[in-house]
Amino acid sequence: MSQRPGLRVKAYLQLMRLPNVFTAIADIVAGYVIVRGFAVSIAELGALILATSGIYSAGCVLNDFCDREVDARERPSRPLPSGMVSGREALILTFFLFAVGIFGAYLAGPDSFSLALAIVLLVIAYDTRSKQHDIIGPVNMAACRAGNLLLGMSPALTVSLPLLFPVVSFCYIFLVTMFSRLETEGNAGGRAWLIAGGIGGIFLLFAVLAVRGDIAADAFIYLALLACLVLPPLRRALRENTPNAVQQSVRSLILAIPFLDAAYTAGMQGAVAGLPVVFCLLPALLIVRFFYVT
Question: Are 127 and 63 contacting, i.e. CB atoms less than 8 angstroms apart?
């Protein structure tokens, strides 16, 4: 009985996908450094981190609430189907986290606030409706993630080259979401090759931008790290064609997002600028063994 409070706290953190929250924070740090450089306002950046942490966590809790009947069949040990957290508690937590996120965006400024509201609507649409569709769902999820990067850029957002980066993130998350739909059946097949091709396309795009002088070649330091993290499990998923192999590959693809974000910042501000973005990954790596990420 003495362990129950601790188990309940862990159940709430599982619903919030705690390791993934740090990848959302990486989006914010990357977007912020891209537009602000090293002229950082701790209050402004902190408000944006609060915004993304609340909105992302709320979306994850709402997702599990909407999936509770499916999880009862396929993942009965998760917090809601196991009874560790009730549906009512999950909804209360969802509303609270959304409120925290919106409040953080309000503190960051009017542009951030407006963008955060749009992201909240996209998150709710995905969790309650669009994820049931094979194409609309991944498009919706990709829009949420691209919007998160834009949220980090919102304090000084202008029409310029950095707007290309949310498009890259959109494509990456679209492919990852499509791939993640194979988690319960395996058979990575063509979608794994599509992911590999997408990563190759990102390298090609950055190479073109570097040759044109639009970005620094420092970006390739972090792109290489991304490839080292995601390609081995992706190769395993192709070789084994099992649900577990696909799940491990999806986890790596999600945890690699900070490296993609760091490539953006390094390309615009130099290699050192990518370090605080990558540091966002360290807490996730330390706790990922205790929490599921998909």
Answer: yes
pLDDT digits (tens, 9 = 90+) for 185-207: 667 777 888 899 999 999 999 99
Specify whether the CB–CB gap between 138 and 125 falls below 8 A: no
CB 223 within 8 A of CB 259: yes
- Residue 39 and residue 23: Cα distance in Å, rounded? 22
Nearest to residue 49, comparing CAs of 119, 100, 114? 100
User: What CATH number is given to the structural domain containing 200?
Assistant: 1.10.357.140
From the number of C-beta atoms within 10 Å of its C-beta (0-12, 13-18, 19+), residue 242 rates as middle
Placement of tokens 């205790």 in the chain = 290
Total domains, the chain: 1
Across the chain, what does the average pLDDT equal? Answer: 93
Burial class from Cβ neighbours inside 10 Å (0-12, 13-18, 19+) for residue 50 reads: buried
Nearest to 85 by CA among 60, 97, 63, 68: 68
Helix 219-240, helix 243-255: angle, nearest 10 = 170
Provide the domain limits for residue 78.
4-290
What's the half-sphere exposure (Cβ side, CA atoms, 13 Å) at 14? 20
Residue 291: both structure tokens together: 């929490």
